């Protein structure tokens, strides 16, 4: 749930045609994410940050209806893990043809990424890595279309399950 936004957020929202940015307080963060796979990845990332994985810095794409923006985002949890703070710095912006935001039916990219159904790690270049490392290596939050996520089981989890 969003509990606070700053003036930078309000300005950003106004630039994207959303004058009621203050109305977002008390609403779920996922109401503002356009893609189910992106929501899944962001939830996993927040769960890891809250569980003590430390802060995470990632390249991130956050488009407006008429503009494509590339940002660097910093995500950090409070000591209790209850609150998570997002801060961003814009790296690049360019005009684009008008496109509606929050298109929940946006088509997927052509590729598929593999996630372990037990430990939530991702297979990247033959190595099973945590979500934040996968997001960095694959540039997941910079893409215009998210890849589909398929599920498998990593060797570590397979070994644990077979031993049980």
Descriptive tags:
three-stranded antiparallel β-sheet, globular, four-stranded mixed β-sheet, alpha+beta, 164 residues
CA gyration radius, whole angstroms? 17 Å
Succession of helices and strands: HHEEEEEEHEH
Q: Give me the count of strands.
A: 7
Which spans have pLDDT < 50 for at least 5 consecutive residues?
none
Q: Count of DSSP helices?
A: 4
Give the spatial strand order of the biggest sheet: 6-5-4-7
Major sheet details: 4 strands, mixed
Q: Based on helices, strands and strand pairing, what is the structural class?
A: alpha+beta
| Proportion of helical residues | 25-40%
Q: What is the overall shape?
A: globular
What this model shows, in words?
- The protein is an alpha+beta fold.
- It has one domain (33-163).
- It has four helices and seven strands.
- The strands form two sheets. It has a four-stranded mixed β-sheet. Strands 1-2-3 form a three-stranded antiparallel β-sheet.
- The mean pLDDT is 83.
List the SSEs and their pairings.
Elements: H1 7-15, H2 36-53, E1 56-61, E2 67-77, E3 84-95, E4 112-116, E5 122-124, E6 127-129, H3 131-138, E7 148-152, H4 155-163
Parallel strand pairs: 4-7
Antiparallel strand pairs: 1-2, 2-3, 4-5, 5-6
